[in-house]
Amino acid sequence: MKKLKHEAELVKGAIAAGAKYGEERGVVEFDATDSAALKIEYIYRLLVHDKLIQPLPEDQVSQQSMRHKLALWYAKQLPKGHPLLK
Question: How far apart are CA 77 and CA 84, in angstroms?
Fold first, then answer.
């Protein structure tokens, strides 16, 4: 798994976009006190359930791998030429 150049920023964007997606679907409402790890896992599992991303093999699911998958998913949502894609 090759780390992306702006992975931390992409993960932050993915959390925001994933939370918005979940709230629009009416399946989640995150509190300000919810940890980033909890949000990452929930968003990852929601996107896998909705078949928006390919699931990882269950023995390879970790915080780091879920963060990476969410960063890749969010990067694909960004328009060409976005500063985070350079």
Answer: 11
